[in-house]
Structures are given as C-alpha cells and as structure tokens.
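User: hey, got a sec? need Sulfotransferase domain-containing protein folded
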Amino acid sequence: MSMKDEMGAGPAAGRKKARRGTGKAAAGAPAIGNFALILGAMKSGTTTLYDYLVTHPEIAACVRKEPSFFASDRRRKLPRRYYRLWPDFDPRRHRYAIEASVDYTKQPRYRNVTKWIGEFPANFKYIYIMRDPVDRIESQIAHNIAKGRITRENYADNLEATISTSRYAYQLDAFREPLGDPEVLLLDFDELRRDPMTLLARVVDFLGIDPTFTFAERPASNTRKAVNDSETFRLSAEERARYRAELAPDMARLARTYGFDVARWGFDPAAAPSPAPVLPPPVPPAVRAAPPSPGAEKASPPKNRDKTGKTGKSRSYWSGRRKMVCYDCVRAMVGRFAAGSRSLLDVGSHGTGLVEEFKWIPERVSLDLREPYSSEAVRGIEADFLTFDPGRRYDFVTCLQVLDHVPDAEAFAKRLLAVSDRVLVSVRYLWPGDPNDAHGHDPVDEAKLDGWFGRAPDHRVIAQEPLRGGPESRRMIAYYHNVPGETFSLRPPRARSAAAPAVAAAPRDEGIPEPAGADDQRPA
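Assistant: Yep! Here you go:
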C-alpha cells in the first residue's frame, strides 16, 4: 500500500461558493475518471482540508462535503448517480472530483464501502487524516454530546464504535486487502494546525496537480472548532490511560505495516502489534434501521439543521409524509395503547419527528444508526439497535418502516420484544419485490410478519392511502402486547391525560382506528 505521511488545514469561506453548483447535473452529467476521497478520520480536520483543496482550480467540489455514497446500501451504485454530485465538473479543467465522507472509515459499521468502490469504473486516490487516537475519541464524545445524541451521564455506555474509529490500522486494512495496494496519503491533524501550507504542498504533489497554485491563508475555523469540542468535555486520566492501552497494539501495527510515526502521539512503535483483524465480510445490500430518505442521489446541497436538530433532508422526508393515513393510524394506536406510558423508545427515527407529538409521555427517546431525531423534549441516541443495551425496559416502543429494511428482520423483531412489553411496528404491505430496492423482504404479508415476531400481533390494521392507486399504497401496522398480569383490551382506559388523543375502537385485523380531528387531516 502506498502510504505517504504528513498533512494540511484551512478555510471555510470558500466552501459555500464551491458547493453551490449549477443544479444542471442530470442524465447528461459527464463521466468522471479520477476521484480524490478524504476518508476521515472523524473529528480530525477533514472539513478544513476539504475547504482548502476545493479552491484549487483542478479540483471539482462536491455538492456536499460528505455524501457517504459508498457507505449507503440503499441504492444501486450507478455511476450517473455519483457523477450528479459534481454538477460543475468540467473535464477540460478539472483533474479530480473530491469528497470527504468520514463514514468510509467507520468499520465495521459500513462493511460494503470498498466493495462498492472496487466495482466503480473510475480511479481513486485516498487521503486519510489522523490525530492522537484518544484525543479523537474525546472530541467525538464532545461532538455527540453537543448534538444531543448522548449525555455526559451515559456517554460511556456504547463507545465501541467510537473507539473502533480510532483504530487506524484496522480502518486502513479495509482498503488495503480488497483494493490491492491503493494509493493512500497519511496525514497528521497536528501538522494541519501548525503548517497547513507545507502539508498542502505534499497533497498537491500526491495528486499531481498544478503546484504553482497558491492557497489563500484563512483562519483554521474548523480546526479551532475541533479544539473547542475537546475543551467542552474531558476524559478522566484513568479513562485516557485505559483507551491508550487498548489502542496501543493497533498503533504499533500502524507504524509497522503502514510506516506512520506513532511516537508523535506517545505510542511505542516497537510494542507488540495487534494481529491483522478479520474484517467482517460485505453484506448483501441492506439499509440501516431508518426509513427511506432521498440519500446521495440528489444533487442539491443539504440545508442547515433546524432547532429540533433535523437536517433539511429529514424535514423534507417527514413533511411529505406526516399527513399520511398510516401515520394517523399510528397516532391513534399510540394514543390508545400508550396512554399510561411514562417512557417511549422510537427505533429507526432518522429525523422523523412523530415522537414529538406524544407529549403526554414524559421520557421520549429516539434511536438510529445516524441522525436520530432529537429536540429539547426528545433525547436522540446514535447506536446500532441490535447491539444497543438500554440497561432498562421501556413502557412502549415504536418501530415504523424499519423492519422491511434490515437484513435480519427476525432478530430485529425479537430485540424489539426484549426491550418492551408493548411494541408497535409498521411495514410495507404486499409491495412487489424489486431486486434493485433496499426493501429486501418484499412482499411482506401477515404470515411473514408473524414469523419474524414468532406470533400474531394482538391488533393489526392495514392502512390504505387514498388517491394512491396500485399495490404500493398500503402499510400494515401491528401492536404486540405482553404485559404480565394485564389483559389486552381495545376498550379506552378510564383515566388519561388531557394531552392524549381520544380514539374510536376498531375490531382486530379490520379497519383503521380514527384519531380525533381526523376529518381535518387530509392525506398528502
């Protein structure tokens, strides 16, 4: 593997102009032969380096810094979809198209990254920016606390993914083996801060672009932000020592296998290295536990997050679906079956704010692999549900439009029943199967859902969206009730909070419960 070592830092003002694009990239988007990928690591200056490089006249900027195109399994990796992310690419003057998706070095979460890259018809050069691995862990924890994904009290509960991102040799192995000695430039965050111009000269030489171009000196705004993140949260001396000891074998292998000087971070390169780990094999196309979203196919810059923490993409997804009949059914059933609940966990929210509406439930938690919904009233947790350990049981769990996405739906369903005695799920009902679609379980019917959960639900409705013909307009909503000593009943509870909606009863497996005020809600 060609590993060069050093680094660069920089701007932010230039990125807004570089990202703007013409908006004309469509089917006629030009084929691009050379890509430069900044792989990560997260919280190591990737944005600063990207901001510098997109000002070079021979580098085309992506419509967004982190499209994570090869990390997602939701869509087929058609070249034209990737090309659309560079609407301003001009083969007469641009030698590279660049992006900086840190998800590419988050093994083992995104297993298919190198599989997709290896099958893509283009040449790739890779840039990997690293920093002291314990400092990086500290900065990522601070970042997640600031985003509301974790709290200062529970940050240590699910740290394995964060620690794994700091196993730099392990992350590089994912590229070295499948891609056959790719060209990778290794850089150091500290050099980005100290001497960005010298580092940029090395990057220019690595890419083979015009060395006479002069990068403008700009405040290292994002570098400063990374430092500020670490100042808002500090690991204890005991925690730092424990993580350093855990990461020492990987650091030794980074030095021996990839020739990177880890002594600069206080690690002994002569320590016993970790064996090359067996990387998880690529998995069949599947999606994380989240509803479908526009993804990398759109060639429009992402909007800023709103006050609830949702991105423009998440707002767009939810605003276009919140008035659907299936969600009216969910509202009615949560109002009925969770009337007395004190805690609710929504699994696979991905920015969908339905949980915000259940205001009578004091504790509401939203969980997803990435970008869980969060607000002042809803705590977001970024975690893999199959390995997530809440350390308690929730009064009520919702999982909407998720089971038909995940590879092992049965394991996911059993996990839902393990964290609560009241579980409400929704799936696509009898949608035709499509080999190019991420919903690998279609068509889903009653028998398939019953097989996943090991029994029939206590209540089930089929929601038909009006004015939407064809089979792709129905969803099945099912409720599972397993409260010891409590008999399931459709009869409304005698006492309920005034905030909980009143609901009309519906027979099992028939009809749609109608929430109060349904006449005023028109399906989108």
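Quick note: The chain has two domains: 2-265, 303-520. Let me know if you need anything else on Sulfotransferase domain-containing protein.
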